[in-house]
Amino acid sequence: MTATARPSSRPAVVVGTDGSARGRDAVVTAAAEAVRRHLPLRIVHALTWPALPVALPPGLTEVSPAAARERAAQCLYDAVKYAADAVPGVVTETALVTGRPTAVLEEQSRHASLLVVGAHGLGGMLLGSVAGHVVAHAACPVLVVRGEPRPTGPVVAGVDGSPASAAVLDAALREASLRGTTLIALHAWSGSDWTELNSGLPMTYEFWSGEAQEQRVMAEAMAGTGDRYPDVPVRRRVVRGHAGPLLSELSQTAQLVVIGDHDRSRLAGPVSRHLIFHAGCPTLVVPARRDAQGLRATPP
Asked: Which of 113, 151, 255, 273 has the CA that lies 20 to 30 A from 34?
């Protein structure tokens, strides 16, 4: 185990911890991801001060700044030890940052290869609301830890056929390759779907006939993926239904679910929120590319 008190300038896998049991689960998952990617693990704790912005009831005394910082430092120390015990060989560094958890993690994502958060937690660091905010605003992919960690099972990707979903597929293929497993690419459609990818197709009966159109959307989305990741077996599924429940069902036996948060995607906010609370395995959310002003931009 190698530990440093301050973060380095190297890209890292970043995890937020609050000292809760769910927070420890996130730390262990992040440690495994760091080793898998040959990157250091940066463990971050957000110190909110004052902890309570309201008057305390009679009989309670406010924790001093020194005591709060000491507790936070102990939380980081325990997290480093927990990561090293669970994943031998992980290289760790820590960061104790004053600020709101959402703001701290969002800033950390600007210098991270991967950001790992828990879907639930205690003490304000890994609450579901924090995970939801980070998923929507992070500058790097976000891994939301919930469900059961599984060493076996496929990687599942939600594919909507939009230009931005190419990043989702690429990330899912890479994760499947890293894990030595199969990719299940799921395209869910409701019967009234439209995507930019199929907007130029001829307006024939086949175009409007439902499943034939959606099969074409999937084929176009998957074109060339075998050349980039020839080691990954791919199973395609085109299913009529809602993406959230379908992905949640597949997550019960998967190692990982990969989706996007791009504005043009039908797998945007509602599906991300559904999986944060209902997935049976960790969910990787791939962010849309942003322009210089921080606005989401569709890939060329």
From this structure: 273
pLDDT (tens digit per residue) in 24-83: 899 999 999 999 999 999 999 998 765 545 454 555 456 677 888 888 899 999 999 999
Domain at 97, CATH number: 3.40.50.620
Decide which of 122, 145, 168 is a domain's last residue. 145
Q: Which range, of 3-7, 81-85, 172-176, 221-225, averages the lowest pLDDT?
A: 3-7
Percent of the chain at pLDDT > 90 equals 43
Judgement on whether residues 130 and 9 belong to the same structural domain of the protein:
yes
- Note whether residue 299 is domain-resident: no
Peptide bond connecting 50 to the previous residue in cis, omega within 30 degrees of 0: yes
Select from 145, 171, 188 the last residue of a domain: 145
DSSP three-state, residue 297 = coil
Alpha helices in the chain, H assignment, sequence order: 21-37, 65-86, 101-109, 128-137, 165-179, 211-222, 225-228, 243-251, 269-278
Rounded Cα distance, 173 and 157, in Å: 9
Closest CA to 162 of 140, 192, 194, 186: 194
Burial of 37 (0-12, 13-18, 19+ CB in 10 A): middle
Residue 160 has pLDDT above 60, yes or no: yes
What the block records as the tokens of 266 is 């039908």
